[in-house]
Amino acid sequence: MNSELWKPRKVVIVGAGAVGSTFAYALAQSGLADEIGLLDANHELALGQVLDLAHGQAIFPPVHIPEAQAADFADAHLIVITAGSKQRPGESRLALLQRNAKIIQDIMDEIVRQNSSAIVLLVSNPVDVLTYVAQKRSGWPRGRVLGSGTVLDSARFRHLLAQHCDVDVHNVHAYILGEHGDSELAAWSMTHMAGMPIEQYCAICEQCDDWAKSRREIAEAVKHSAYHIIDYKGATWFAVGLALTRIAAAILRNQNSVLTVSAVLEGEYGLSGVSLGVPCLVSQKGIERILEAKLTPDEQSALNRSAAVLREMITQLDLPGPG
Ligand SMILES: NC(=O)c1ccc[n+]([C@@H]2O[C@H](COP(=O)([O-])OP(=O)(O)OC[C@H]3O[C@@H](n4cnc5c(N)ncnc54)[C@H](O)[C@@H]3O)[C@@H](O)[C@H]2O)c1
C-alpha cells in the first residue's frame, strides 16, 4: 500500500481514568482504530494505562497506543472526552458542575487551537450540559460535537426488556430519551420486539400478568441502574466503555447508525437551547441527522420536562466567554 495515501484512524481519549481506559481497552479489542492516544492531566496515570494496554498489543488486533499530547488533536478522527473532576468534600453539585464545565471549555479551546478536524464526543457528566457547553464554546457545526447521551441507558433498557420478556436482546429495539439522568424517559411508542410494537408483542408474550406495572418497574430500574452499580463498586465503567465503542464504530465506519446521542437542538421536538438524548443518524460527520419521531403527548411532555431540568442547569452556570 502507498504509505502516503494511508491515514491511520486515530482516536484520542482525554481522561484516562476508569471510563477512558475501559473504553480504550474495548476499542483496542474491536479493531476499529489504528491509533488510540491517551491524554490525562495526571501524566503518570496516562503512562501507566498506556504501558498496561501496550502489553496486550501482541493479542489485540493491530493498534498503536501512545500517550497523546494536545498536538494529537490536529489529525484525530475522533476525540472522546471523559475528563472530569470528582466532588470535593462539602462541594455543591453546582460548584462541581461549574468546575467541570471550565475543564471542558479549556479542553475545547485547545482542540480548536490545534485546528482539529475531529468529531468530539463528550462523556463527562452531566454529559448533556457539558455537550451543550462544548458545542457552544467551539462554535463548530452542532453535528461535530455530540454527547454519549442515553446510548448507555437505551442499552440498559433493552437488556431489562429482553430479560423480562425472555427474548434475545438483539430482537429488542428500544430507546431512552432526554437527560442522561433522573429526568430521562422511556419512549414506549418507539419500542419494538421481534419487529412488533411492544403492546402487540405483549399479547403473545406470556411472561407477566400485569404489563402496566412491569412497564413502570422497568423504566424505573433503567433510571436507577447506575445508582445500584455505584453503591456496589463506586462507579460504572464497563457498559459505558462498550456504548462508546458502539458510537465510535458509527463514526469511524460511517455507519449511519441510529443512536440516542446527546444533540444540541435547534427546534427539533419543539426544543432549543439545550442538548439531550434523541435518536440521531450517526456517521463520519458526527450527527448526520436528528430523527424527529412522533412521540405520544405524554412522552413529549416528559421530554419537555427533561429539557427544562437541563436548561435550568445551563442557566445556573456562570462561564467566561471565549478566551
Ligand atoms: N455519559 C455516561 O454515560 C457516563 C457513564 C459513566 C461515567 N461517566 C462520566 O465520565 C467521567 C469520567 O469518569 P471516571 O470514572 O473515568 O472518572 P476518573 O476520575 O476515574 O477519571 C477522570 C480522569 O480525568 C482526568 N482529568 C481531569 N481533568 C483533566 C483535564 N483537564 N485534562 C485531562 N484529564 C483530566 C483525571 O486526572 C482522571 O484521571 C465522569 O464525569 C463520569 O461521571 C459518564
Question: Overview of this structure, please?
Answer:
Helices cover 43% and strands 17% of the residues. It has 323 residues and is an alpha/beta fold. The strands form 5 sheets. The chain has a 5-stranded parallel β-sheet with strand order 2-1-3-4-5. A 3-stranded antiparallel β-sheet has the order 6-9-10. The longest helix has 23 residues, at 211-233. Nicotinamide-adenine-dinucleotide (NAD) is lined by residues 14-20, 39-42, 45, 82-86, 103, 107, 123-125, 127, 148, 152, 180, 235-237, 240.
| Strand line-up across the major sheet | 2-1-3-4-5
What overall form do the CA principal axes indicate? globular
In terms of DSSP E residues, the strand content is 15-25%
- Write down the Rg: 20 Å
Q: Biggest sheet: strands, sense, closure? A: 5 strands, parallel
So how many helices? Answer: 9
Bound ligands, named by name, code or SMILES: nicotinamide-adenine-dinucleotide
Tell me the helix content.
40-55%
Structural class: alpha/beta
At a glance:
It contains 9 helices and 15 strands. It is of the alpha/beta class and 323 residues long. Strand 12 (262-266) and strand 13 form a beta hairpin.
